[in-house]
């Protein structure tokens, strides 16, 4: 008996960041789109909790208790007073440490899979609360589609999307630490007034319209300058994708993956080919959005 859950990556089409709060977090207005790059999390009964991983960059995934999938299984088991005795296998296709919420996806996938395996029937609101305890991006990985995240990103409001958007993701060598990117944001904005984060009405209108050119004109990421400060080479990747015909280019979340919005499927494949040939990234992947959230496959 095992359960497999498929869970998507995300791109932040808007990431508005407020000043650091007393608890060290930042208030956000974070417009998430789930994209069709997926990890699969399979849970099987075992004598104790263990994690294995396969797929691209699997060697970079921690297999100890710090793994978000392991933490999710432990949290759900504690909620129901049972032992988290499962083997969690992650089949990884979302770039690791790339600003696309791969670890968060695995946490959400493990929660849903363990809940199905154990027959614990946890209400959706409780699952979302557990997700929020695990990390700011984990609730959206469970929900998928499109949503506005406020607070530190964990409080979600669904967002209407009127069409399919085509993306290219350029995967960089090595990761970028999200806490390090936020520290750099604090350094770069020190002594300035950081405005309260708010969702862009123009961006929300563009998503509703399904018009990629309208969306391209409204994309924004307040962490981009921080990511570029820590990894200046990303500027060349952004330029290569733009020169290849992307409608817009931005750092995905805290990076170092860069995201390119294309007009249609053919344009996306052309941008991906140009990025791969440019030598400015390790690989380039195409994907569409929005995509469904965590889904039990079998």
Show the helix and strand layout.
Elements: E1 3-20, E2 26-45, E3 50-54, H1 68-80, E4 86-91, H2 102-118, H3 124-134, H4 138-143, E5 146-150, E6 155-158, E7 165-171, H5 178-189, H6 201-209, H7 212-216, E8 220-221, H8 224-230, H9 234-243, E9 248-251, E10 258-262, H10 265-278, E11 283-289, E12 295-296
Quick structural summary:
The protein has 298 residues and is α+β, with helices and mostly antiparallel strands.
Number of strands: 12
- Residue windows where pLDDT falls under 50 for at least 5 positions: none
The DSSP helix count reads 10
- Average per-residue pLDDT, rounded, comes to 94
| Cα radius of gyration in angstroms | 19 Å
What does the largest sheet look like?
A: 8 strands, mixed
Helix content: 25-40%
The termini sit apart by 10 Å
What portion of residues belong to β-strands?
Answer: 25-35%
Order of helices and strands: EEEHEHHHEEEHHHEHHEEHEE
Secondary-structure class: alpha+beta
Summarize the structure in words:
- α9 packs across α10.
- β5 and β6 form a beta hairpin.
- Strands 1, 2, 3, 4, 5, 6, 8 and 12 form an eight-stranded mixed β-sheet that branches.
- The longest helix has 17 residues.
- It is built from ten helices and twelve strands.
- The chain is globular and about 55 Å long.
- The chain is an alpha+beta fold and 298 residues long.
Structure keywords:
alpha+beta, single chain, 10 helices, four-stranded antiparallel β-sheet
């Amino acid at each position: 008996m095992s359960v497999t859950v498929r869970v998507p990556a995300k791109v932040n089409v808007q990431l508005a960041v407020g000043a650091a709060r007393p608890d060290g977090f930042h208030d956000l207005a974070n417009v998430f789109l789930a994209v069709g790059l997926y990890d699969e999390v399979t849970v099987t009964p075992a004598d104790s909790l263990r994690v294995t991983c396969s797929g691209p960059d699997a060697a970079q995934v921690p297999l100890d208790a710090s793994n978000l999938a392991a933490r999710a299984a432990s949290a759900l088991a504690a909620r129901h007073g049972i032992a988290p005795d499962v083997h969690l296998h992650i089949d990884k296709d979302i770039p690791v440490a790339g600003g696309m919420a791969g670890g968060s996806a695995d946490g959400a996938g493990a929660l849903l899979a363990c809940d199905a395996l154990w027959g614990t029937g946890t209400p959706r609101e409780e699952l979302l609360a557990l997700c929020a305890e695990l990390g700011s991006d984990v609730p959206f990985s469970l929900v998928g589609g499109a949503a506005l995240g406020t607070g530190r990103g964990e409080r979600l409001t669904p967002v209407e999307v009127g069409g399919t958007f085509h993306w290219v993701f350029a995967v960089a060598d090595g990761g970028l630490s999200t806490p390090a990117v936020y520290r750099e944001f604090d350094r770069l904005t020190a002594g300035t007034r950081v405005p309260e984060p708010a969702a862009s009405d123009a961006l929300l209108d563009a998503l509703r319209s399904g018009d990629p050119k309208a969306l391209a004109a409204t994309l924004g990421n307040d962490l981009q300058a921080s990511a570029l400060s820590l990894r200046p080479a990303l500027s060349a990747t952004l330029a290569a994708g733009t020169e290849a015909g992307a409608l817009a280019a931005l750092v995905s979340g805290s990076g170092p993956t860069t995201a390119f919005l294309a007009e249609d499927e053919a344009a996306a494949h052309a941008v991906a080919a140009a990025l791969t040939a440019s030598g400015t990234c390790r690989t380039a992947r195409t994907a569409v959005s929005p995509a469904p959230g965590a889904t039990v496959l079998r």
